[in-house]
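step: validate -> pass
step: tokenize input -> pass
step: predict -> running
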Amino acid sequence: MHGPISPGWLLVALCAATGAYCLLRMRSGVEEQRRAAGSEALMGFGMAAMAVPAAVFTPPQWAWSGYAVVFGAAGLHALWAARTDAHHLHHLVGTSAMVYMAVVMAASPGSHTGHGGAGVAPVTGALLLYFAGYVLLSGVRLVPVAGGGGAVAWGDRPELARACRLSMGIAMVTMLLTM
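step: predict -> pass
step: emit ->
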């Protein structure tokens, strides 16, 4: 990611923490939590790796192709899973955004803009609109709802899963803004 170093490291930490929590959710006794957790962990760790400030580490050119392949495969999995669970359509958009960013970074290693400095590329703009809307909707979903109490395992807490999704949405907007 290109931009100031401190916000870049904060983004890395946020995405890595989100990925780690998603790994914890994969051990949940609630099937709904487990289903999406693997894809979300991959997104969290992938976004953390891509967000490492370029001033600290610039990956070799072939790494961007690796990102594109990994997230392309994750996108195919999300497309397949979307047959039975509409939430995976969001995963499909997220993995597509990751592939897009990896391709842009591979194609323009010097400028890292993907649009030649002439404004926001249409794909970047569309992804920004989608993820900005997703962040707003996710934020509204964090509003607590009166419900049953009781002790719930960390991996089964739906409000933490929503907070993680919100975090990744904000991180995606941030990464797209740096394109």
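step: describe -> The radius of gyration is 17 Å.
step: cleanup -> pass
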